[in-house]
Amino acid sequence: MSTKQDVILASDAPAPAFSFADMQRMAVAIAKSGLFGVKDADQALSLMMIAQAEGKHPALIARDYDVIQGRPAKKSEAILRDFQASGGRVEWHQRDDKGASATFSHPLAPKPVKIDWDLARAKQAGLMDKNGGMYVKYPRQMLSARCISEGCRAIAPSATSGFYTPEETRDMEAPAPAQPVNAAIAQAAQAPDPNEVEAYVNSMDVASLPALQAAFEAAWKSTKDVAVRARYKACYESMKGEIADAQARDAAEQS
Fold first, then answer.
1. Contact 141, 124 (CB under 8 A)
2. Which of 110, 60, 108 lies closest to 86 in space, CA to CA?
């Protein structure tokens, strides 16, 4: 009889599949909380779909991703975690305030690669001009993140999920704001997002009047669009009637 035991890490267990409506609700909640740096429901929803496509729980975006200057960024520790989970290995030679140096290897890569980052290289790349304060305050963290991103991207690009780290993203030029070409486009840009509207409508599918009132108030405050507010009001009245009917049935059964 074999004594071998198969150990399954929690991170290897398949994540439960969530419907699009479920992720919409979570996206709105994450954006409204403002606790994880994602303040836009559409950004949160996009990152959730990426996480679910990779077999991860959608809520892990709060742990693994940041949104910097409107761009999604994958944290260096998340890149390193996925790199090692896929079989990658890292041998650190230096990791201090003067520099970061490590050798990265992976079963699918023909040979290891050694990556070195120090303040001189950061200055040569122009990073000290763009984000020099961070390199002065946290040189070890900034240089390590650069080293991890370059090494993992060179050996196992899938570990980055196609994103740069927050440290790299901060060093990029901020994207120019989109300029509407006419009033019609400007008005469309201000229109409520359909996905967010549906998420607010779904949030009113509750079982108690206090919960319904709270969901309705949040939906009402989210927009000034007359048509959308009318829909929220209609949904509120409908759910209010359903809750009242349910309470009446419960009272009749108990009498």
1. no
2. 108
DSSP codes, 66-114: EEETTEEEE-HHHHHHHHHHTT-EEEEEEESSSEEEEEEE-TTSSS-EE
**Measuring CA to CA, which residue among 51, 52, 48 is closest to residue 25?**
48
pLDDT band at 162 (very low <50, low <70, confident <90, very high): confident
Backbone angles phi, psi at 70, to 5 degrees: 80, 0
Residue 161 pLDDT class (50, 70, 90 cuts): confident
**If we measure between CA atoms, which residue out of 117, 102, 113 comes closest to residue 156?**
113
Q: Do the strands 65-68 and 113-118 form a parallel or antiparallel pair, or are they unpaired?
A: unpaired
- pLDDT recorded at residue 9: 36
User: CA nearest 88: which of 136, 157, 187?
Assistant: 157
d(CA 130, CA 171): 6
Confidence of residue 93 (pLDDT cuts 50, 70, 90): very high
From the list 148, 166, 188, 150, the residue with the least C-alpha distance to 70 is 166
pLDDT for 11 equals: 44
